[in-house]
Amino acid sequence: MNYLGVDTSGKNLTIIVCKKGEVFRYHDENCGVNHSVAVMPAIEKLIKEAEFDLKSADFFACVVGAGSFTGIRIGVATVKALCMAFNKPCLSVTSFDTITYNKKQGDYLAVIDAKHNSFYVCGYKDLTVTYPPKFIDKAELLSLGKEYKYLTMEKIDGIDSEVVSIADGFIQAVEYKKDQVNQDVNSLVPLYIRKSQAEEGR
Questions:
Q1: What's the half-sphere exposure (Cβ side, CA atoms, 13 Å) at 162?
Q2: Which of 112, 98, 113 is nearest to 62 (CA)?
Q3: Spatial separation of the C-alpha atoms in residues 170 and 3, rounded to whole Å
Q4: Model-wide pTM > 0.85
């Protein structure tokens, strides 16, 4: 199966291409706020390296959040444009999937630092969601440590977690979720667990 996937949900920028079972990746751990200018050059660089024709893609995948509000919108818009340009279906993957799909069995809580002692979390048992995505404070996070082991994409002060590769997890998540590919490109929507700071300030 052939596909291209985009993750702009955090400070990272990850692009993956699968061409007849061979996986190619582009991963910038510190893209910061430059996704809007970096995503298309990164896609072009990777498809050139992989000698991948976008018309040959069976679908396009996107990480829809939780994470950076602006980054998520950029990724969703980019993948929607690719789907419409080449008349291909889409696949949504969450940021929590990119963390947790590094593991195959166990009770894990995917934790994303939302700053100011706040966190986005989602709990899994053997890759099945058991604690839906939620925005919580540190006290609630620590209480969940009684049920789950913490998985994070980076070290978080005061949290005893296992740091995993979100690029590897993205690849694994797309492979596991290929049967969820959707023909309706409008189904590709951002996963916002809370309002943006701008909206909260209104």
A1: 15
A2: 98
A3: 13
A4: yes
